[in-house]
Amino acid sequence: MQLAGKTVLVTGGTDGIGLALARRLQGAGSTVIVVGRNAERLMAARAEAFETLAVDLSGEAGCADLLAAVAGRPIDILVNNAGMGAAFDVTAPIDLDAVDRSIFLNLNAPIRLIAGMLDTLRARPEAMIVNVTSGLALAPAAKSPVYCATKAGLRSFTMALRAQLVDTRIHVLEVLPPVVETRMTAENTHSKMPAPECARQIVVAMEKGRDQANVGMTRLLNTVYNISPAIARRVMLRY
């Protein structure tokens, strides 16, 4: 896809992978609308000449507000990037409200936004849906069961959606990042990919019209998974 002249909506676009991707897309000539919920980071994004929308997508009302805000806009690309983790440790009290917010933001929100924007995307000469899942969608890590479950669910949804849209002008790309250096991974002690490099690889996949972008070390995990899902699961459960 030619990105110059496209209008792109990026959820979770004021920080981490989303902000790095927004910058990269802007550099490629796209008009980028970033969605976030932190007032300070939204202000910083506006200072970089991004249009911003303050929306919390962890509930039904936020999804409805975002769809209303972009109704009638000629959006060519929807990037479902917003995500959050939720602790689920059976040895400690479990915050089920946080679990529900994580499930909604990571899985329900992308589905709702896609459903609400299909007509807009169908009307464009060429369009794209980019769903950011995770290497953990291939094989889960024991310490993050909720996050892994939502990303695996979004991966399955993305694959089925791509099959439904195969004869349309809407291309569906799944992005599977490794551990990336963001606020969400601040306490993760594993090696992390810089967000700008992750964004660079995503943009390459978008420009080349790929179905799946295995970013960084996810390429190796995907290779192992294709050879032996059992080995991939054993490795990642200890990750």
Features:
239 residues; 7-stranded parallel β-sheet; alpha/beta; 47% helix; Rossmann fold
Sketch the major β-sheet: 7 strands, parallel
CATH C-level category: Alpha Beta
Q: What best-fitting shape do the alpha-carbon axes yield?
A: globular
* N-C termini distance: 35 Å
For the secondary structure, the number of strands is 7
Structure, described:
The chain has 239 residues and is α/β, with parallel strands linked by helices. It has one domain: Rossmann fold, CATH 3.40.50.720. Helices cover 47% and strands 15% of the residues. The protein contains eight helices and seven strands. The protein has helices at 16-27, 39-47, 60-70, 96-122, 145-164, 195-208, 218-227, 229-237, and strands at 7-11, 31-36, 51-54, 77-80, 127-132, 170-176, 212-214. The protein has a seven-stranded parallel beta sheet, sandwiched between helices. α4 links the parallel β4 (77-80) and β5 (127-132). It is globular, with a radius of gyration of 17 Å.
Topology:
Layout (H helix, E strand, L loop, with lengths): L6 E5 L4 H12 L3 E6 L2 H9 L3 E4 L5 H11 L6 E4 L15 H27 L4 E6 L12 H20 L5 E7 L18 H14 L3 E3 L3 H10 L1 H9 L2
Parallel strand pairs: 1-2, 1-4, 2-3, 4-5, 5-6, 6-7
Short recap of the structure:
By secondary structure, the chain is of the alpha/beta class. The chain has eight helices and seven strands, in the order βαβαβαβαβαβαβαα. The chain has one domain (7-237): NAD(P)-binding Rossmann-like Domain (Rossmann fold).
